């Protein structure tokens, strides 16, 4: 029997079914809630989930103001009409259908059912089931016949036009046919009556249908268009029944084409049915998740987010007023905001708590009571801090009534708070804790806060073994005694309390000329004048600001200028002035630096004022016992005279903020996202753009235990002790003070910069326009070169000066991370993530014997640093190192006067340092007992592609990036270059000019950067610029072909990667499209790493903010404002690389933790891991095991589940209704995880060149 699909009425169209004398058809199976598939008298019902009802046919549900959306719905309807018309061609027979009893909704007089509310946006009817097998629905509602008639008229007209075009294509002559009531029906349409009892059938001439008013229908009258396409093989073409007129029989050739189209339509309908079934399954799963969804997965659309910026400003203002003792000003501002209803909405409980703590210190119960009344008037609820302030005040009040204290404790209980939480969650300052306890002891003398002895650990299965006590764990101790650590703590504390440190510059070694001495004296004299003038001006400004009566709600600058002495502010300004480059600095960058310095000083003073330093000393002493071995918008530009004075003076000292320097003691361990690293200097665990707080909100929502693994990995990286390689530092400083060496990455002094020519107006008058343009370009080029040289020179000066200052010290680098989880040392200038120079002068403070294989690893590491033998095996590299031992020893003995073999290495300074270490080792009595401090590196083989290949289980990709064991390393860059060369040869044979020009110029170096960055989201445009830069470095390549060649090569590189890494491209495309749909829905992309670190992309549409000043106005471009819509382009382009970065950081953290438990010293530069030569083999084993463990987790499936829960569950019906198509598309895409290959991850454990 032929196939017929009957579509019952969808839920969301409960009031929109057109009923006149017979029930008209509803045309798309995708719009149904229930549809019946009947074949060979077998009944099968497939249910669609409630939300899948699509509103296409009837625009009364579409808000009239959304004209653009209405046009989209109308166009989609016309497509449905086209599909339905082909079905009509087979509908001229009466079908014997066996089915279940189906009943309809009662219709209103207007012929339309009720909508679920007065507004088109009311979608409550979506969740109400309207059509059920064996049940009767209900209807009713407003009359929308006027809009219906206009829409139906247009629909019929468009339908007729499309039908005629289709029939002309198929060669069918259609003529209009009148129904029994004289109304025109579509050509070839026959009215069918499907009875409620099986076995009965009627013809198109059946009796007149009964009116459906206030009674249940006994039949469904529908066109055959209501179903899915009828199978062409089983339904012959019949003549349409009109008034004796019949349509012509189509020609056989047209019939065959029509049958093919019908089969294709049936296939599409089957696919749509499967899609709807999948959507139903996903919706059911989301509903299950929604019942147990964690709070962080729920979209935070609270209006409070709108006021965060204002609340933060008011909070800072109140804190500043309180700190400088201006209590009246703070109280006045709070009361003013409270009295104004429009401003009261901006207040939160934290602002009232600021004043509560003030009055608690003063023991003023009356003021505390008034604050609680204000909180109640504002509609807020007191929190733990509020009750803590009240109890503190009562503890400070002599003879406080126990009834009052009992009332507070009782109110706490009613608010769902307990006393224990006060001591566990509140932060106490000075003697606050003692006062709270005193108040409680008044009514409960035996009360003592309990200590939580239950240790919660990270729930990630990846670190389950790490937090399990094991007999073979060898947690390392620092090579310092307890007294030494305490002494280092005292020195670090003193440095941070002063907040700045002055060190000697490496340029101080130069002889002082009379001119230099004169300029230094003049500069010192001028600074004293500036200091005195600035202090006077600042004091005068403060007096003026203090005398001005502030406006009601306006925040004055005055309290912020009272946080410190005027001299402190002036010192900060002069320090910033000394660091200004000759070309000037952007005003908002300078303002940010000034603000950061003031903030840091304030925080340090606040901690000292609150007696936190004493508490920190006590806690750090206990921690030391565990470590010790015995237990351009606006611009500010310095005047040229000042610049010249500074250059001529060549001052011998440099002043830095204390956090710029490495720490003299082990960093404070990270115990939460807000506490760790420096002793007093405030530091964020996650680096963000100033003003962006989305990351902090996510971290606050996390349970502390979920971040344990991340925090512990940061602590492990920060606990690695360093020292300076003094012999190498002396060589570098000598070259630095002797005009530098650009080849060796030692920048020359500014005196070597090109001279900037000056031209008078008279001289310019003699030049032509072309000559003037040429001079202008040369001038711009010379200024740019001077600026670059100055920047590079100062950067090298800072690094070398800090290294020279620390030359006899042991020091540490505290670590934090960016928003993707990638770790970085906190000191900005001098650290092991720096250039070749800074890496070369850093060695481990702890030395370990080389052991039996250590010297081998030193030699292999040296060959790796040269950049030679990349395609050779480890044995081949070791053999090569043995053949060049003479060059190695000569480089170590005569680095500047010998053969200078080391200078040709890719990393010359690290190579020279390694040569010196090898020379010392081989000349020792027993190299196996030689104590080595030198770090040996193991670098990932195109690490981003390694993660992609592992995610997709891509065998070909895994082979290319050394996930599969091979005798020699596979070089993906050389592989791509070879394939691109094959493409070039093919095109050259076809006569392509640029392919012929490129003969002999396609090398590994040309394509390496593009291949490396494709995995991190580089576009074809960016890739072309990279290749263009590489081609310009090739001396023999014709410069006139650079653009064409780069354009050609980037296409070939992308084509080559697409062939080599099929799985990678599929995963990358899935991530990109997922991010695009998420951003388009108005959300920023979030995910959680396998170690539980929450990540959010802070890319929003740019907002311009004007800041008016007395000097100039600033126009700031703010891209991180969470109140702005997400930047869709940045969100989608950044998601794949950021996700991969989060995975490689997770792998690094896992390796760091397990290396620590094995007793290794471990540090990393992202995907380059460092350890002693003795422990390279152990680190390699751990590295591979953790990579396999990481990718054994269902990473993509867990990501899919998280995104589904985050962005598709818990949505309101209104959101689903307004953006249904986008919602369904996103739902299906996020659930469709890319398929994986059959690569066996366990092979990574045996791959020698995975990291090498």
Automatic annotation (TrEMBL):
<feature type="domain" description="DNA-directed RNA polymerase N-terminal">
    <location>
        <begin position="490"/>
        <end position="719"/>
    </location>
</feature>
<feature type="region of interest" description="Disordered">
    <location>
        <begin position="188"/>
        <end position="214"/>
    </location>
</feature>
<feature type="region of interest" description="Disordered">
    <location>
        <begin position="239"/>
        <end position="266"/>
    </location>
</feature>
<dbReference type="InterPro" id="IPR043502">
    <property type="entry name" value="DNA/RNA_pol_sf"/>
</dbReference>
<keyword id="KW-0808">Transferase</keyword>
<dbReference type="GO" id="GO:0003899">
    <property type="term" value="F:DNA-directed RNA polymerase activity"/>
</dbReference>
<dbReference type="InterPro" id="IPR046950">
    <property type="entry name" value="DNA-dir_Rpol_C_phage-type"/>
</dbReference>
<dbReference type="InterPro" id="IPR002885">
    <property type="entry name" value="PPR_rpt"/>
</dbReference>
<comment type="similarity">
    <text>Belongs to the phage and mitochondrial RNA polymerase family.</text>
</comment>
<keyword id="KW-0804">Transcription</keyword>
<comment type="function">
    <text>DNA-dependent RNA polymerase catalyzes the transcription of DNA into RNA using the four ribonucleoside triphosphates as substrates.</text>
</comment>
<keyword id="KW-0548">Nucleotidyltransferase</keyword>
<dbReference type="GO" id="GO:0034245">
    <property type="term" value="C:mitochondrial DNA-directed RNA polymerase complex"/>
</dbReference>
<feature type="repeat" description="PPR">
    <location>
        <begin position="348"/>
        <end position="382"/>
    </location>
</feature>
<dbReference type="Pfam" id="PF00940">
    <property type="entry name" value="RNA_pol"/>
</dbReference>
<dbReference type="GO" id="GO:0001018">
    <property type="term" value="F:mitochondrial promoter sequence-specific DNA binding"/>
</dbReference>
<keyword id="KW-0809">Transit peptide</keyword>
<dbReference type="InterPro" id="IPR011990">
    <property type="entry name" value="TPR-like_helical_dom_sf"/>
</dbReference>
<dbReference type="InterPro" id="IPR002092">
    <property type="entry name" value="DNA-dir_Rpol_phage-type"/>
</dbReference>
<protein>
    <recommendedName>
        <fullName>DNA-directed RNA polymerase</fullName>
        <ecNumber>2.7.7.6</ecNumber>
    </recommendedName>
</protein>
<dbReference type="InterPro" id="IPR029262">
    <property type="entry name" value="RPOL_N"/>
</dbReference>
<dbReference type="InterPro" id="IPR037159">
    <property type="entry name" value="RNA_POL_N_sf"/>
</dbReference>
<dbReference type="GO" id="GO:0006390">
    <property type="term" value="P:mitochondrial transcription"/>
</dbReference>
<feature type="compositionally biased region" description="Low complexity">
    <location>
        <begin position="195"/>
        <end position="206"/>
    </location>
</feature>
<feature type="compositionally biased region" description="Basic and acidic residues">
    <location>
        <begin position="246"/>
        <end position="266"/>
    </location>
</feature>
<keyword id="KW-0240">DNA-directed RNA polymerase</keyword>
<dbReference type="Pfam" id="PF14700">
    <property type="entry name" value="RPOL_N"/>
</dbReference>
């Amino acid at each position: 029997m032929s196939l017929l699909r009957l579509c019952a009425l969808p839920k969301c169209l409960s009031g929109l079914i057109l009923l006149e004398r017979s029930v008209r058809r509803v045309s798309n199976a995708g719009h149904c809630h229930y549809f019946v598939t009947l074949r060979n008298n077998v009944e099968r019902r497939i249910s669609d989930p409630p939300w899948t009802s699509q509103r296409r046919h009837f625009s009364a549900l579409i808000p009239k103001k959304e004209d653009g959306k209405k046009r989209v719905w109308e166009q989609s309807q016309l497509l449905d009409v086209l599909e339905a018309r082909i079905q009509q061609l087979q509908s001229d027979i009466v079908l014997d259908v066996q089915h279940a009893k189906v009943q309809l909704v009662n219709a209103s007089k207007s012929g339309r059912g009720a909508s679920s509310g007065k507004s088109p946006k009311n979608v409550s009817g979506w969740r109400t089931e309207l059509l059920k097998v064996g049940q009767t629905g209900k209807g009713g509602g407003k009359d929308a016949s006027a809009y219906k008639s206009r829409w139906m008229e247009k629909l019929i007209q468009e339908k007729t036009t499309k039908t005629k075009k289709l029939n002309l294509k198929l060669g069918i002559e259609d003529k209009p046919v009148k129904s029994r009531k004289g109304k025109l029906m579509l050509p070839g349409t026959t009215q069918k009556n499907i009875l409620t009892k099986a076995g009965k059938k009627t013809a198109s001439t059946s009796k007149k249908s009964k009116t459906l008013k206030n009674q249940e229908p006994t039949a469904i009258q529908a066109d055959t268009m209501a179903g899915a396409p009828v199978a062409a093989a089983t339904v012959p073409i019949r003549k349409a029944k009109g008034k004796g007129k019949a349509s012509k029989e189509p020609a056989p050739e047209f019939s065959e084409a029509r049958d093919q189209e019908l089969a294709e339509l049936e296939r599409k309908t089957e696919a749509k049915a499967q899609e709807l079934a999948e959507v139903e399954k996903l919706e059911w799963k989301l509903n299950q998740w929604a019942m147990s969804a964690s709070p962080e997965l729920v979209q935070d659309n609270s209006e409070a987010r709108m006021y965060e910026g204002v609340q933060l400003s008011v909070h800072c203002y109140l804190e500043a007023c309180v700190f400088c003792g201006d209590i009246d000003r703070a109280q006045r501002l709070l009361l003013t905001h409270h009295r104004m209803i429009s401003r009261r909405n901006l207040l939160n409980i934290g602002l009232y708590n600021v004043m509560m703590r003030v009055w608690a210190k003063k023991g003023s119960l009356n003021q505390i009571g008034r604050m609680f009344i204000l909180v109640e008037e504002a509609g807020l609820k007191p929190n733990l801090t509020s009750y803590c302030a009240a109890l503190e005040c009562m503890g400070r009040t002599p003879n406080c009534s126990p009834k009052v204290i009992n009332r507070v404790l009782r109110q706490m209980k009613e608010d769902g708070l307990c006393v224990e939480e006060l001591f566990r969650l509140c932060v106490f300052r000075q003697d606050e804790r003692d006062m709270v306890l005193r108040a409680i002891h008044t009514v409960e003398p035996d009360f003592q806060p309990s200590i939580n002895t239950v240790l919660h650990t990270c729930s990630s299965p990846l670190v389950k073994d790490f937090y399990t006590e094991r007999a073979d764990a060898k947690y390392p101790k620092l090579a310092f005694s307890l007294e030494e650590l305490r002494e280092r703590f005292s020195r670090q504390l003193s440095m941070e309390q002063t907040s700045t440190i002055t060190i000697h510059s490496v340029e101080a070694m130069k002889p002082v000329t009379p001119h230099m001495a004169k300029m230094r004296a003049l500069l010192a004299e001028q600074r004293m004048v500036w200091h005195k003038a600035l202090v006077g001006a600042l004091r005068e400004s403060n007096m003026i600001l203090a005398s001005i009566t502030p406006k009601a709600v306006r925040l004055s600058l005055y309290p912020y200028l009272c946080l410190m002495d005027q001299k402190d502010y002036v010192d900060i300004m002069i320090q910033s002035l000394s660091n200004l480059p000759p070309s000037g600095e952007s005003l908002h960058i300078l303002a940010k630096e000034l603000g950061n310095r003031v903030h840091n000083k304030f925080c340090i003073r606040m901690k000292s004022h609150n007696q936190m330093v004493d508490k920190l000393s006590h806690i750090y002493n206990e921690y030391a016992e565990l470590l010790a071995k015995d237990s351009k918008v606006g611009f500010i530009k310095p005047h040229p005279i000042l610049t010249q004075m500074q250059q001529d003076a060549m001052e011998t000292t440099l002043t830095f903020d204390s956090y710029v320097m490495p720490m003299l003691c082990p960093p404070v361990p990270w115990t939460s996202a807000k506490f760790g690293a420096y002793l007093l200097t405030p530091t964020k665990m996650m680096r963000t753009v100033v003003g962006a707080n989305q990351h902090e909100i996510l971290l606050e929502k996390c349970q502390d235990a979920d971040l344990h693994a991340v925090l512990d990995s940061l602590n492990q990286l920060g606990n690695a002790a360093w020292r300076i390689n003094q012999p190498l530092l002396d060589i570098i400083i000598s070259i630095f003070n002797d005009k530098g060496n650009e080849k060796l990455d030692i920048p020359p002094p500014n005196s070597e910069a090109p001279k900037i020519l000056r031209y008078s107006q008279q001289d310019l008058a003699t030049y032509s326009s072309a000559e003037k343009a040429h001079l202008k370009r040369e001038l711009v080029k010379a200024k740019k070169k001077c600026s670059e040289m100055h920047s590079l020179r100062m950067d090298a000066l800072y690094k070398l000066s800090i290294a020279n200052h620390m030359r006899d010290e042991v020091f540490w680098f505290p670590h934090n991370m960016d928003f993707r989880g990638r770790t970085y040392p906190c000191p900005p200038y001098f650290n092991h993530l720096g250039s070749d120079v800074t890496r070369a002068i850093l060695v481990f403070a702890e030395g370990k014997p080389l052991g039996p294989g250590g010297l081998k690893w030193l030699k292999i590491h040296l060959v790796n640093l040269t950049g030679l033998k990349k395609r050779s095996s480890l044995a081949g590299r070791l053999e090569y190192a043995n053949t060049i031992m003479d060059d190695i020893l000569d480089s170590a003995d005569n680095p500047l006067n010998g053969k200078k073999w080391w200078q040709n290495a890719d990393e010359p300074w690290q190579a020279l340092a390694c040569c010196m270490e090898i020379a010392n080792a081989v000349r020792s009595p027993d190299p196996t007992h030689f104590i080595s401090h030198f770090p040996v590196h193991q670098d990932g083989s195109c690490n981003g592609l390694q993660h992609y290949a592992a995610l997709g289980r891509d065998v070909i990709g895994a082979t290319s990036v050394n996930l599969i064991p091979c005798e020699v390393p596979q070089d993906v860059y050389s592989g791509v270059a070879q394939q691109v060369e094959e493409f070039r040869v093919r095109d050259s044979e076809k006569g392509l000019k640029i392919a012929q020009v490129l003969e002999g110029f396609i090398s590994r170096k040309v394509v390496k950067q593009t291949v490396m960055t494709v995995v991190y989201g580089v576009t074809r445009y960016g890739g072309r610029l990279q290749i263009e830069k590489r081609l310009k470095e090739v001396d023999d390549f014709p410069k006139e072909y650079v653009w064409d060649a780069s354009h050609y090569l980037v296409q070939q590189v992308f084509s080559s990667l697409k062939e080599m890494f099929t799985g990678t491209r599929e995963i990358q495309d899935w991530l990109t499209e997922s991010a695009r749909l998420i951003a388009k829905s108005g959300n920023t992309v979030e995910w959680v790493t396998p170690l539980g670190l929450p990540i959010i992309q802070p890319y929003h549409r740019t907002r311009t903010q004007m800041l008016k000043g007395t000097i100039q106005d600033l126009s700031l471009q703010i891209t991180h404002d969470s109140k702005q819509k997400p930047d869709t382009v940045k969100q989608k382009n950044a998601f794949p690389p950021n996700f991969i970065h989060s995975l490689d950081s997770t792998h690094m953290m896992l390796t760091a933790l397990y290396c620590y438990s094995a007793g290794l010293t471990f540090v990393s530069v992202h995907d380059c891991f460092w350890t002693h030569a003795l422990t390279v083999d152990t680190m390699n084993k751990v590295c591979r095991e953790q990579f396999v463990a990481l990718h054994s987790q269902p990473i993509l499936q867990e990501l899919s589940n998280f995104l589904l829960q985050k962005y598709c569950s818990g949505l309101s019906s209104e959101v689903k209704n307004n953006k249904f198509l986008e919602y369904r598309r996103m739902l299906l895409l996020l659930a469709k995880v890319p398929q994986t290959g059959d690569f066996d991850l366990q092979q990574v454990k045996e791959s020698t060149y995975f990291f090498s």
